[in-house]
Amino acid sequence: MQRIYFNEVVTRDGFQNEPEFVPTDVKVNLIDALSLCGYAKIEVTSFTSAKSIPMLRDAEEVMGRIRRAPGVEYTVLVPNVRGAERAMESKADEFNLVMSTSETHNLSNLRMPRERSFAGLKEVVELANGRVPINVSLSACFGCPMEGEVPQAEVIAWADRFADLGVRGLTICDTTGMAHPDQVSRMCEALRARFPNLQLTLHFHNTRGMGLANVMAAAQQGIDRYDGSLGGLGGCPYAPGASGNISTEDAIHMLQAVGYETGIDLELLLAVARRLPHVVGHEVPGQVAKAGRTLDLHPEPAYVAELRSKFE
User: Fold this and answer.
1) What is the CATH class of 5-311?
2) Is the predicted pLDDT of residue 102 greater than 90, yes or no?
């Protein structure tokens, strides 16, 4: 089976919505631990203003202190030119730019119309000018809780505009957890046909319990890159009812179980995942860290041995 590549987003997408600030030392230690697990990318932080996202106000310090592992790209969210300049100074390996394919969601999330968002992000692409690879995350691609289903043609049209700017990759996001597997299959088939030379990443949420089913649908269409958040942390604060991202460890456990190669040391990753509730001070949605892998067997109860001897 094909190789799957994972991008870990917990320290950006996950932590930005936490009610309590995660100390810088803790973030750095967590990223250093994740760097040893086999990820293709780690989205470290966001160079948004501290006023907008106070949980990530330590972006420069975190980027300056992490131990960068060979083979791992350290990507950051960049909202505008000023953020891009800060990210360049911090030697980010990739810029991740974000806008929504839904006008209402874009207004709710970014406080501006889509055309204005596009114009601002185009300036970032021009600033990077081949010096830093650009990925564009298109939000609400499978539905908006205020508008309903976003037409696939609308998603492709926005993807086309960024592809024409020369970006390296596109992330197609189910920001509000409205996707279902048939919809995902159709979208992925269209994307692979339209953009054969771009890195295509899928970003799913588990709002309605279909996150992992959607991963399988995308993988069966040949998509080989996914975002995931350790423990399933995160979620869109501007999407009513939206819960967290898919749990990275749960998705990797599933994909490995059916034969995909992920490059991830799942045992090591689960050890890191089991530390996460202590980091954030509450339980997290991820399941495999709690239940163990499918073949993590348990000793049989003493009475079973007695029954065996009784019935032999």
Assistant:
1) alpha beta
2) yes
> At residue 1, does pLDDT exceed 80?
no
Give 49-63 pLDDT, tens digit per residue: 999 899 999 999 999
**Has 141 been annotated as catalytic?**
no
Asked whether the predicted pLDDT for residue 242 surpasses 60, the reply is: no
Q: Which of 37, 141, 188, 236 is catalytic?
A: 236
CA 229 – CA 232 distance, rounded (Å) = 5
Q: Which is higher by pLDDT, 110 or 211?
A: 211
Domain boundaries, the chain: 5-311
